[in-house]
Specification:
9-stranded mixed beta sheet, alpha/beta, 28% strand, 233 residues
Length: 233
């Protein structure tokens, strides 16, 4: 099975559509599928529910899809760097399912593993728990959280072989594998592609069974979200 596509646009052809749920990997702006997000914007699909650690920044990452009003709902754990996100949410134009970061990660992992729901202590006693079932385990209250799956997952890896086995680079490993597991169709953007068998099996972070399509982007922008430098004095 040939998983390699010539461009991000080709990799999304016949996969994305209106009103889908899209899981997008990355941690802040680290390890986001830049080319795939741009190609998704250019498709013009609308009414999207996006599951992502955050919503990018104004004009970059998922911020592009907010600017074009293609996203109707975000399921996120951090949204603090995007003024357009804030404006749309406060004006009632954008739905938000605000989710603790660890809970979001487990929702995706459980969804990919076929586990429909789980109990967690996180969020009990806060607005996160409103309307959710509460049960005690060992005398401690836990809330019921439902798992997440997506119609399509867009992820970013450092290296792939032609079978789709992936290696992630440092922090990019935080949410990308989880999104890939939760997606019914997973499209990965990689910086380097090697022949099948060239990767050390012990170094593979995600097996190719989870990957449906591959596109190579050898020179991503990798924008820095918050540039902080040390005072030379």
């Amino acid at each position: 099975m040939n998983k390699l596509f010539a461009s991000a646009e080709a990799a999304l052809s016949g996969v994305v559509g209106d009103n889908q749920t899209i899981a997008v990997g990355g941690f802040g702006l680290c390890g986001i599928p830049e080319a795939l997000i741009g190609a998704l914007r250019d498709t013009g699909v609308r009414g999207l529910t996006c599951i992502s650690n955050n919503a990018g920044v104004d004009g970059f990452g998922l911020g592009q899809l907010l600017s074009t009003r293609q996203i109707k709902k975000m399921i996120s754990s951090y949204v603090g760097e995007n003024k357009e996100f804030e404006r749309q949410y406060l004006s009632g134009e954008l739905e938000l399912e605000f989710t603790p970061q660890g809970t979001l990660a487990e929702k995706l992992r459980a969804g990919g593993a076929g586990i429909p729901a789980f109990f967690t202590r996180t969020g009990f006693g806060t607005v996160v728990a409103e309307g959710k079932e509460v049960r005690e385990f060992d005398g401690v209250p836990h809330i019921l959280e439902h798992s997440l799956t997506a119609d399509v997952a867009l992820i970013k890896a450092w290296k792939a072989d032609k079978a789709g086995n992936l290696v992630f680079n440092k922090t990019a490993r935080n949410f990308n594998p989880l999104c890939a597991m939760a997606g019914r169709v997973t499209v990965v953007e990689v910086e380097e592609l090697v022949e099948t068998g060239a990767l050390d099996p012990d170094q593979i972070h995600l097996p190719g069974i989870y990957v449906d399509r591959i596109v190579v982007n050898v020179s991503p922008e990798k924008r820095i979200e918050q540039r902080t430098v040390r005072n030379p004095a």
